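note to self: dont lose this again. the chain is below, predicted strucutre after it. 170 aa total, dont forget to put it in the shared folder this time
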Amino acid sequence: MKAVAALIVAIVALSPAAARAETIDFGWLAEKFQLHCAAVFLDEESFHIDLAPEETGFETIEEPRHPGELWSNGDIQLSYISAGQAPAGVPAPQCRMTADVAGSFDHLASVGALNRQLSISGGSTSGKAMRNRTIWSYANEAGTPLKLFFDSRPQGAGFWVSLTIMNVKD
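---
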């Protein structure tokens, strides 16, 4: 788990706010996360077909320090690490979206929105000083064990948020 935390911290460091055009609505981000990450990330081929840059507006970002692939559409930064790209001890595949959301953002209310959007429940929230993390451990319909991380922190006039889903099956 320490390897996972270290990888997430490293990816966070590679996600500058300047790469994003504007703040967005969290509900819209949750829908995009469901569509482009949660629904397809376990199948690398489906993930890449779904990403279709000509339809989604995502463009590749070259970042040699990142172990997987990175894209941005101006509002959202998307990261994907396949099983073949993951460092030893890091669960894969995994998919991550980051964005700046509007200043009216509320982490706990957004947990409820994610529960509804992804048809999951629960989640364990921790944090302080408006820096929050919620973690869910659950199985999908096929029984594959998954872990979902939802992080938020104040940034500028709004909040930076990150959603990461990963396969934790050994």
